Amino acid sequence: MVEIAGTDMVKFAKNGSNVTTAAAKVARAFTGRPLICVPRQHPFFSFDDWFIGATAIKRGIPEVHHATTLLFDYGDLASLQALFAQHPGQIAGVMLEPATTVGPCDGAPGYDRLRPPTAVVAQWPGNFLKLVQDLCRREGALFILDEMITGFRWDLHGAQKLFGVQPDLSTFGKGMANGFAVAALVGRREVMEVGAINRPGQERTFLVSTTHGGEMASLAAFRETVAVYEEQDVVGHLWNYGGKLMTGLEEAAREAGVGSAFQLQGNAISMNYLTFDAQGQPSLPLRTLFSQEMIRHGVLMPWIAPSFAHRDGELQRTLEAARKALAVYAQALEAGAERFLEGPAIKPVFRQFN
Ligand SMILES: Cc1ncc(COP(=O)(O)O)c(C=O)c1O
């Protein structure tokens, strides 16, 4: 059994978007306020209009939705304070991922990107999640953590445990049931109860209801997955493997002479590779080239997510492919990536035109 501290109630669903949208709705219903804040650096919370209306892809979404989600900068409390100042009494909740490749305590003394953050690190006064939590409490807005990616990976009890915070609501999905379709909205009773159906006379909130919501195989898979996580220290393996992969890729980049043009960002459990051209500018053609060359050597790695299935063999195979890919990368830095690309370069997802 996995227990998320401070959580009294849960609503299960099939997709992450179902529960983040439900969290936004609960926050609005609970506070009676219309607006939700999310960090502009966090790419995705839901396919529903409340979130997509705030991206570059507004087509098909009525204008009324474009202004109900407000953007601030992760790590910059002043940018969130400014939103509260501009919209007094209007912000229902702040939703964010606890961490991505950028975390809330990255600058803390003792922070080690190869290990889970310690309690000492979490107590750092600059802990961004604690600052957001305090601000939300002062302003009467709900503090909502979307643990879709961090949950069951950073820690079995969520990144919230590692960073010493207690959200009013949190959402989980993805790794919960090892690929089976389960997501969850969890939170404290007082807040979650706006979605309850057993309180006579209470105004109703339509939380989530889907035909396949009651499908049981996924819930059984969830229980079994948690048992495996506990018995086999899956989280420990992910940190350990991720650390070896991260340092191995950095070493491969240095050996290929591209240490500053191919960099690893983040930490052992949540990393990304960044690709820069000879002028030091971020380069999507070079990112595409790296991916292309990795595929040539049998490794599909458009992004990095360590898995329990990754073992020493996979590590060696990945690093060997990376050494070969980075040798081509080094040539492309001199001659231009276009000369080596076999197809078009990738583009960002959130752009207005294809
Ligand atoms: C942080 C985050 N929240 C929510 C979602 C939505 O989850 P789903 O794709 O299961 O609807 C995603 C999916 O990529 C996500 O990464």
Notable characteristics:
354 residues, alpha/beta, Aspartate Aminotransferase, domain 2, Aspartate Aminotransferase, domain 1, 2 domains, two-stranded antiparallel ribbon, binds pyridoxal-5'-phosphate
Helix content: 25-40%
At the fold tier of CATH, the topology name of the largest domain is: Aspartate Aminotransferase, domain 2
Specify the biggest β-sheet.
7 strands, mixed
Please give the radius of gyration in angstroms.
21 Å
Low-confidence stretches: none
Shape: globular
Average per-residue pLDDT, rounded, comes to 96
Overview of the structural elements:
The protein is an alpha/beta fold and 354 residues long. It folds into 2 domains: 9-230, Type I PLP-dependent aspartate aminotransferase-like (Major domain) (Aspartate Aminotransferase, domain 2); 234-339, Aspartate Aminotransferase, domain 1, CATH 3.90.1150. It is 36% helix and 13% strand. It contains 11 helices and 9 strands. The strands form 2 sheets. Strands 1-7-6-5-4-2-3 form a 7-stranded mixed β-sheet, sandwiched between helices. Strands 8-9 form a two-stranded antiparallel sheet. Helix 3 packs parallel to helix 5 (128-139) and helix 9 (234-255) packs parallel to helix 11 (312-335). It is globular. The mean pLDDT is 96. The site of pyridoxal-5'-phosphate (PLP) has 12 residues, from helix 1. Pyridoxal-5'-phosphate binds at residues 15-17, 20, 44-45, 97, 146, 148-149, 173, 183.
Could you give a short description of this structure?
This protein is α/β, with parallel strands linked by helices and 354 residues long. 36% of the residues lie in helices and 13% in strands.
